Amino acid sequence: MSVEHRPRILYVEPYEAGSHAAFTRTLTAGLAADWTVLTLPGRHWKWRMRGTAAWLARERSRELRGPFDAMLASAYLPLAELVGLAPSLAAVPRLLYFHENQLAFPVRAEFAGERDLHFGFTQLVSALAADVCAFNSAWNRDSFLGAARELLDRMPDAVPEGWVEAVAERSVVLPLPVELPDHAGAEGAEVPPGPERAAGPVVLWNHRWEHDKGPERFFEALFRLADRGVPFRAAVCGERFREAPAVFEEARARLGPRLLHWGWIPERRAYLDLLARAQIVVSTARHEFFGLSVLEATHLGARPLVPDGLCYPEIYPPEFRYAGEAALEGELERLCRAWTAGTLDLRADRRAWTAPFAAERVLPRYAERLGALADRAVPLARSRGPR
């Protein structure tokens, strides 16, 4: 960063969980700056998007007065509201980071046609209050801007001219800086012939247990393969919240003898150990703006099998993508049977795909962006201190 002193950066994350929390840790530990970090636990996402600005303005007013050279906030924050309620932030250059966007987020089937557009509008207004809008993938950026145009075209009148164009001009793609694991198994060691090989490859699910990750698609494919006697074992992990789709309990009952693992793994090393044992990592996501879990498993040697869309074409070659549920099932069967027969190895060293997302490669891009913002900070923002 090019400011003469150590830059002072305000960081706001209303939803500190999962990849958001990993982003916070990696960014604040990896960039030399004086960080003021304000976070809230990763729960009640709707309330976070509606209430965070008022809470921060009332409960963290002293911290918000700075002084700051730049601000970085997650798009869960209603940024325009916070700047209005904490006027000192108006003088601070601001970067808004989109881990996901609510205009492209899928609606649960039972709520089809009932999308609450206010969350998308909140992010669209927040984008106007930011100097830079950073997205973790081109798919995230493009889906947000495309949906924003469609949404504003439906409004009856008084739509500001050039709203989406202004957001597009300040939009950039900045991937997540990922702490890629240095872990045994990344070299692609395979299982030798024997009873374990005969049991079939380990098919991994390591996503949040929520509807948008498409668990029904994944388990229905496994149910049909099991009914046909296709050899495989399954490892199911990932974060579970209070309510999980009912298919998980059905899967636990129907796939019981084939389950190598079931449930959340709180200890990082044990989680990596499981990833390093997987032959195939599958995504059946209905949305994916970056895909950290598949990236980690791929880094440790698993063969990815991902949808031919969303963010995945930005990372994975066509032969590792499928189009439609029938293609998923057919490819899974082919891979499982060939691996069990010993005619195909699935694990391999694919770290060349994941290396561009390593924290040490990506963090300098954040430093450059935040440094450019800090250089634009007006003297008022730099000099204002506690009163």
Give a written overview of the molecule.
The longest helix has 17 residues, at 325-341. The two termini are 28 Å apart. It is built from 16 helices and 12 strands. It is an alpha/beta fold. Helix 2 runs parallel beside helix 4 (79-85) and helix 9 packs across helix 13. Helices cover 41% and strands 15% of the residues. The chain has 2 domains: 8-177 and 359-383, 3-Layer(aba) Sandwich (Rossmann fold); 195-353, Rossmann fold, CATH 3.40.50.2000. Helix 5 (117-128) links the parallel strand 4 and strand 5 (132-135). The protein has helices at residues 18-30, 45-59, 61-64, 79-85, 117-128, 138-153, 163-169, 195-198, 215-227, 247-254, 268-275, 292-299, 325-341, 351-354, 359-375, 379-383, and strands at residues 8-16, 34-41, 70-74, 94-98, 132-135, 171-173, 202-206, 233-237, 259-262, 280-282, 303-307, 321-322. Residues 380-387 have low confidence and may be disordered. The strands form 2 sheets. The chain has a 6-stranded parallel sheet with strand order 2-1-3-4-5-6.
Q: Could you give the topology of this structure?
A:
Elements: E1 8-16, H1 18-30, E2 34-41, H2 45-59, H3 61-64, E3 70-74, H4 79-85, E4 94-98, H5 117-128, E5 132-135, H6 138-153, H7 163-169, E6 171-173, H8 195-198, E7 202-206, H9 215-227, E8 233-237, H10 247-254, E9 259-262, H11 268-275, E10 280-282, H12 292-299, E11 303-307, E12 321-322, H13 325-341, H14 351-354, H15 359-375, H16 379-383
Parallel strand pairs: 1-2, 1-3, 3-4, 4-5, 5-6, 7-8, 7-10, 8-9, 10-11, 11-12
Helix pairs in contact: 2-4, 9-10, 9-13
